[in-house]
Structures are given as C-alpha cells and as structure tokens.
## 1
Amino acid sequence: MMSSSLKSIKSIPVVLLLILIFSCQTKNSIDEEKSGQWIQLFNGQDLDDWTIKIAKHELNENFANTFRVEDGMMKVRYDGYEAFDQQYGHIYFKQPFSYYLLNVEYRFVGEQAPEGEGWALRNSGAMLHCQDPKTILKDQDFPISIEGQFLGGDGTNERTTSNLCTPGTHVVLDGELFTPHCLNSTSQTYHGEQWVTAQFLVLGDSIVYHILEGDTVIKYSKPTIGGGNVNPSDPAVKIDGTPLKSGFIALQSESHPIDFRKVELFDLESYKGNKEKLKKVLARLGTKD
C-alpha cells in the first residue's frame, strides 16, 4: 500500500535485538529447544495450502492466473490482464497464527501491469494478522491487517522497504497511538531484481518487529482494528478497538510482478506464557542462516 509518513527508528541487528528482549542463553540450554522446526508455508510445488482473494472476484477465483508456481517459486504475474483496474489480490496461508517468526525471500521483476497505480510500482507486502479471507467482501480492496510493505527501488531514488502500513488497523508506536496509514522503515534501498530477506517477529497483540537482512527497521505494539484504508468492509468484522491477537498471513498482488522463493514460519505459540523457553528459542533463531 502507499507510504505517506516517515519516522526515524534506529536499526538494531537481529541478534542484538533478541539479546535486548531476553538475556543470552548457554549452549546447553539452547540445545534443549532444538525440537522446534521451521514450517514451509510455500512448498515450492503448488498452492494447495493457500486461499486466493482478488478484489472484484469471488473467493478462490485466481483471475488471469495471477498467482502461480513456476521454477520452484510463487510468482505474481499480470500477463493475462488488459488493465489492472484496482484488482488488488492477496493469497492467504490456510491457517491463522498468533506468535511466530515469519521469513520471506522476495524480488521484484519485470514491468508493472497496465494502469497500475503510480504508488504501486515495485510494491507488494506481507499482511500479518489478516482477517479470515472467507469474511472479505467481493469488492473489498485490502484485508484488515498490519502490513510489512515491500518496496523495490526505481534505480535512482532512495526507497525504504519492510515499511509499516495499517489497512483497517492502528498500532502503538513509541508509547503513542499511531493512526496514519503508513510509516517508512530505516532500511536501505534495494534496486533491480535482487533477492531480499524480510522477517517479522510477531508476538500476538503485544509487539511486532520488522527485521530486514538481519537489522530491525521498525518496531511497534498493540495492533488493533481501527481506521480506514479498507473499502468496503463488513461492519460485523471491522469492529474498531478490537485487539489483533492472531490472524492469517497473506502475500500481495498490487500490479507489479514479484517472485517469492521462500515463505517459512517458526511457530512460537507453544512458548507463549513461558518466558524462559521463549527466550531460549529466540536466541537460537537469531543465529539462523
């Protein structure tokens, strides 16, 4: 979605971040938690575990084969579109999560679809704590969610990525309610078709970190339903003030082709309420290659 705000947040290496959240652990204590495994949300073969919802179309209508698997990658393409026509699309993993570390590897490629919005050039995102795709209206543009926005450079100008956007939501930033739609991160710019690794540490409705290439580029807390930038929406679903404790994970189609070669998640739900075990597994995940 479109960025409109800028706020400086000091970048913190992910390992240091985990140390700041929790104390360091010994090797023996880390070994005790090695039973956890990364879940490959995208299996590199098909989209059987995913639900598709594209604006102006019914649930699971993959209009013009927008979402496809080729060469072991999930691809978003527009070769079947005469015009983009604000047909914003999202593809949702089959189950919701609450506490997790999400890891996404992406790259922008090719040219934007005809009649794509100017702000949507080299623009996509990972939608976190999404509403159930079954509750999204046929013409609804974006899901109620918090977005880790992906932006690619235009070859000349600075353009941060792993930004925050808030379709139908609010968050708390530096102790204050943040109501603008988007906030730029502190990341560098990624021009061309290079691969970028984005991670999101999401701990229910307590705190969220955007981590890009090992550095924390945004942090915020207490996501709730509220505000605009979701049109239309079901008032029975969009109940402002409701804490976002969990939700679905989705990837965007916003008119520019993008590839995803890895979408994986480490589920931290079993560590909720057990601070000692949570800090052990986070210390280990901080050293992930």
## 2
Amino acid sequence: MAIAMEYVMNYERERGWIPTDVSQLRDGCGFDILSVEDREDDSNNVLVRRIEVKGRADFNQDICLTNNEWRRAQQLGDSYWLYVVWGCKTNAPQLITIQNPVVALAGNVKEVKQVTRYIIGGSTLAQYHSG
C-alpha cells in the first residue's frame, strides 16, 4: 500500500495538485488522499479530489472497497476518485483513475455480504430451559 500511496501522491503533484495523505487519521472519511488543485475554477471554487487508493503487486488483480468507502463514494459523487495502482512490485506500475466509481462501475460491482453475527431466537432458547 505504501508504494501505491507514494505513486499516487507523486502523480497528483506532477499534475499540479496538492495532495494530503489523510489515511493515517483513521477518521472514517472513506478515502486516503485529499487533493486540491493549485488554482480556482471560473466560479472561484477550489477543486477537490477525494481519492481512495488501492495497490496490487501484480496486474489485472481485483480490488475491494469497504462498505464505508462505497457509501462515501455514493455521497461524494464526482469529487470521489478511485485510483488503482497495478504492478506495485514491478518497475513499471500502471495507474487506473476512475471518477465517481459508483456511477462509472455501475453493473460491474459485486456486493459481498459478510456475516457479522448470528441471532438465536428466544423461542429456540426456551427449548433448552431447564426449569
């Protein structure tokens, strides 16, 4: 992950953006880098990218987004970017950038349901009552 983060930070700087690594804050923001363009647009709005970074050692590997990352992508829309760095362990990494991944990847995302707990009903428990 450190290789991917460094790669993306350098990529943003080379394009005239000012990236800040916010991943260490562990504040639940749902992205790793807050990048601000070093200029304002015609409406005097500061342009911001909220970037989730995923790095993979090899090429053509799957990535996973957490529920929080996906939810934040839904909320933040076009200001949310997914950057995937393939080939982090090679001499020639490849960067994939996807703006608003919820819209861009619609229909190509698989939701994975995970068991977080098991519920045992009271009527079932009552069968074991030894009184």
